[in-house]
């Protein structure tokens, strides 16, 4: 890339909320990939998490040095969660989820949920609201 | 208990559940739009009553809610250790008395139980009476809203409903989406 080229960064994106979906993700499915697959199932390209709660076998949260912290269960309960799903040009939804989890003594830990490393224990309930940027029609 | 892992090959742990594996791993339903409501949880009422009754009065029986921070005069929560009876992989503990508490953030799902009564499933992080921050499954009937109303953003679910149904795989009743009956 030449030094004169710049990458276009969208800082603000106007749009509107679209459909609302609720899913129950079954045991041993990954939380992050489960949310991504839910978007594939429902045809959501972009979405915000409107609510989520459930339990994980063990939780894996990213740390600032690039490692991860594993909180041992079962079960580790997800007690707060926020996040979004964005799809690139290839149409593949990518979920970015962060939150607070509680271990079997009620002690809490927080950070980003690592994709592939947060298997659901009993159930995970998630509500997504579709985000439709201006100029894009829903899938 | 937690541990920080820096290197080496690890893999996430799976559990074998008591019942038969279900081939459907993600049960989802959607509606063309959400209906949003700002609800104020009223002082002195249980979290259950403060959530369920005002929403019932405006016809909302299935919803996903975000409970913003607020004081509780009394709060009880459960954690989820392994089930010693072996009937399921885990079971909720006896309620833990957190005393007068501040709920930092919570999510609650409203649906119907197996008998058709309102059901609230709530997880939250909480600053408990001794000052420590804890988290778990909140007992909505036993947790009492403090002196100041607490704001809740409600996303009402329309076009389908949430009902508790027995789940063969985990051997416990769970909330799932169904077409409206």
Automatic annotation (TrEMBL), chain A:
Residues 15-139 form the PPC domain. It holds the Pfam family PCC. One of its GO terms (molecular function) is DNA binding. The keyword DNA-binding applies. It comes from the Bacteria. SUPFAM superfamilies: AF0104/ALDC/Ptd012-like. This is DNA-binding protein. The lineage of its organism: Bacteria, Pseudomonadati, Pseudomonadota, Gammaproteobacteria, Oceanospirillales.
From TrEMBL, chain B:
It comes from the Bacteria. Residues 31-178 form the PPC domain. This is DUF296 domain-containing protein. It comes from Salinicola corii.
